[in-house]
Amino acid sequence: MKFEEDGLEPGEKYSLFGSILTFGAMIGAITIGPIADFIGRKWAMRISSAFCVAGWLAIYFAETPDKSVFVLLQKGALALDIGRLATGYGMGAFSYVVPVFIAEIAPKNLRGGLTTLNQVMICTGVSVSFIIGTVITWRALALSGIIPCAIVLLGLFLIPESPRWLAKVGKEKEFESALQKLRGKDFDISQEAAEIQVYCVITLQDYIDTLQRLPKAKVLDLFQRRYLRSVTIGVGLMVCQQLGGINGICFYVTSIFEAAGFPSNLGTIIYACIQVSASGLVLGCMLTAISFFLKVHELALEASPILAVTGILVYIGSFSIGMGAVPWVVMSEIFPINIKGVAGGLATLVNWFIAWLVSYTYNYLMSWSSYGTFILYGAINALAIVFIVKVVPETKGRTLEEIQAAINA
């Protein structure tokens, strides 16, 4: 993108560049569901890793004599755009296939905890990146992004494929072998194998045959009455997660601290450390809104920076242990296996589309009203609480088949 030729202002440049990643993620969300259904969960993760590696390399090798990525951005470096798009594709693909894979391999008593742990690891990785980014160059930071991708690629050789996916494609022997490997060689898997059959109350082979006879799901099929509730829950949670402002805050956290008068490097490091704990999305937005309100009206100027940083830290901590994890946990549980690829892809697409919308509009909203922006985010998060209380069911302690049968009855 050649921003200067396009006549874009600096804020527009960074809004557009910041949102490129979410474009890639939307493409990943659309395509990875059918890919994971066709070639398996493990190969889908390999493809996701490959895109991330390619993206980080493109960013690393972007040509510029200057050490600043922002100067390179202003010059319109195509390599940066391609790299950000490719890493976005990998992130979008991972955000669907990893929670699904975890939900399909985990025992029912550990499923929610392990899927939540995935979100904790994401937050931890982001935290480490924020901290490392304050002490190394952006090129070195891009190169370091390849390390976790390499670990994933190697680690996939050590774990079995999803037993439920193997059952779906009719590989009965591989299904039993994978389930046995996951539970341990001395563990009796007969009861769990039977629970997988309960969804249709038939023998395993009949279950496999039935799944194979089901027509391949299309997007329009998701709006049939029997699937409508699960789709509403899955998509609704993704909208609630992203529309509350998380990507606007994450992408521009440094500028938020600077605008509020707080040292940006110190604020970024504290922000990174707090990602793995705390509570209160609405409270965090309201504290930040009050901070900007005081600054705009020149009231209690000494308190404004402290309120801003407190609000952001409370917000991101709450997100990490709540809305950051819950939508992905629920999405991995509620869709029947014959529509899981299409429905999960739709939910992930909506997630990344809203992420793009929020990250792109953040600067415009802040120009309109700094405190109004966070009041808006707070109101949306309050509505999200109502949606969760009224619509989202409890899934703890139930098998995937029991959850899906109850929701889609």
UniProtKB/TrEMBL annotation:
Segments passing through the bilayer: 16-36, 43-62, 82-102, 114-132, 138-159, 231-257, 269-294, 306-330, 342-362, 374-392
Alphabetized SUPFAM superfamilies for the sequence: MFS general substrate transporter
Major facilitator superfamily (MFS) profile domain location: 1-396
Record keywords, A-Z: Membrane, Sugar transport, Transmembrane, Transmembrane helix, Transport
Listed name of the protein: Major facilitator superfamily (MFS) profile domain-containing protein
Subcellular location: Membrane
MF annotations from Gene Ontology: sugar transmembrane transporter activity
Family: Belongs to the major facilitator superfamily. Phosphate:H(+) symporter (TC 2.A.1.9) family. Belongs to the major facilitator superfamily. Sugar transporter (TC 2.A.1.1) family.
Membrane association type: Multi-pass membrane protein
GO CC, alphabetical: membrane
Pfam families (UniProt xref): Sugar_tr
Annotated source species: Rhododendron griersonianum
